[in-house]
Specification:
With 248 residues, the protein is of the alpha+beta class. The chain has three domains: 83 residues, no CATH class; 102 residues, no CATH class; 55 residues, no CATH class. It is built from nine helices and six strands; from the N terminus they run H-E-E-H-H-E-H-H-H-H-H-H-E-E-E. The protein has a three-stranded antiparallel beta sheet with strand order 1-2-3. A three-stranded antiparallel beta sheet has the order 4-5-6, covered by helices on one side. A hairpin with a 5-residue loop joins strand 5 and strand 6. Helix 6 packs across helix 7. The chain is elongated. The relative contact order is 0.06.
C-alpha cells in the first residue's frame, strides 16, 4: 500500500491523475481536465486569474479526499471536462455536440428523408419499365397535391413549399436510378456467381418505323433448386434502323 496513492485504490475519479509524492512523501494529484484547459480555469471567477489552483497544474498538489470532492463541484472543472471530451471526438462527432451542429444534423435528417422518398418513387417507377424520367416531376407534384387536398376547405392553388421540389428533375432521376443499381450490384453478382444454372433471354422488337428497347434477363437456378427471373438491363436504340431493315 505504501507505493500506491490512497484514492487510486478507491477509484476516486478518472479526472485525477496521481503525480507521485512530494518532498514530504505526500501523494500529489492533478486534474487532467483542468490541466489541459488552464484558460477555462482562469476565466472562472472561482479562482485567481494570476495563479492557478494546485490541482490545475501539471505537477499537481497534495490533496485530501474532501478537497478532491470539492474540486469536482467547481464550474470550471465541469467546463474543462466538456472541452476535454469534445477534443477526444472526431470532427463529425464534435460538430454534432455543438448547437449549430445539432441544427445541421436536423437539416441533414430532413434531407435524407426527402432523398429517400425520391429513391422509393423512382424504384417503383423503374419496376414498371414504361414510366419516363421526364414525367416524374409531374407525378411528384400530383402526389403532393393529393396529400394536401382537403375537401372541407375551399380550393386553393397548390404552391410547393421551399425544398419540396428539391432534386425533382429528369437529371436527378437518372442519378438516383444509377445509385439504386450500384447499391444492388454486389447482391446481383453474388446471386449469379452462386447459381447452378443460368439461361439468358434477350427480348426486343422492331417494326417498319422503329426499333424498341432490348431487354436482357436471366433465368437463374439457385443452390436449393429454386428458379428466379433476374433483370440484367436494357439497351436503347441509337438509330432508327436494324440489320435486315432499311432506314425509314
Amino acid at each position: 500500500m505504501s507505493g500506491e496513492p490512497p484514492f487510486k485504490m478507491m477509484k476516486f475519479d478518472e479526472a485525477f491523475v496521481w503525480m507521485g509524492k512530494d518532498g514530504q512523501g505526500k501523494f500529489r494529484y492533478s486534474c487532467q481536465y483542468c490541466t489541459a484547459f488552464p484558460e477555462i480555469v482562469k476565466r472562472s471567477g472561482e479562482c485567481s486569474r494570476k495563479k492557478l489552483p494546485g490541482l490545475c497544474k501539471p505537477e499537481g498538489i497534495y490533496s485530501t479526499g474532501a478537497q478532491l470532492s470539492a474540486h469536482l463541484k467547481l464550474s470550471y472543472h465541469a467546463e474543462s471536462k466538456k472541452a476535454f471530451d469534445l477534443r477526444a471526438l472526431r470532427p463529425q462527432e464534435r460538430l454534432q455536440k455543438s448547437q449549430i451542429g445539432i441544427i445541421f444534423s436536423t437539416q441533414n435528417r430532413q434531407l435524407a428523408v426527402t432523398v429517400g422518398s425520391h429513391i422509393l418513387d423512382i424504384y417503383c417507377d423503374a419496376k414498371h419499365l414504361t414510366l419516363s424520367a421526364h414525367s416524374w416531376p409531374a407525378r411528384k407534384i400530383a402526389q403532393q397535391m393529393g396529400l394536401a387536398l382537403d375537401l372541407e376547405k375551399n380550393f386553393v392553388p397548390h404552391t410547393p413549399k421551399s425544398g419540396d421540389l428539391l432534386y425533382v428533375n429528369p437529371v436527378q432521376h437518372k442519378m438516383f436510378l444509377d445509385y439504386i443499381v450500384t447499391a444492388d450490384l454486389d447482391r446481383l453478382k453474388a446471386q449469379l456467381a452462386d447459381a447452378v444454372a443460368i439461361s439468358i433471354r434477350v427480348d426486343g422488337s422492331v417494326d417498319k418505323y422503329q426499333v424498341g428497347n432490348t431487354f436482357v434477363m436471366a433465368k437463374v437456378v439457385d443452390s436449393v433448386g429454386l428458379d428466379h427471373l433476374v433483370f440484367i438491363g436494357f439497351e436503347e436504340p441509337k438509330e432508327r434502323k436494324a440489320k435486315g431493315k432499311l432506314f425509314c
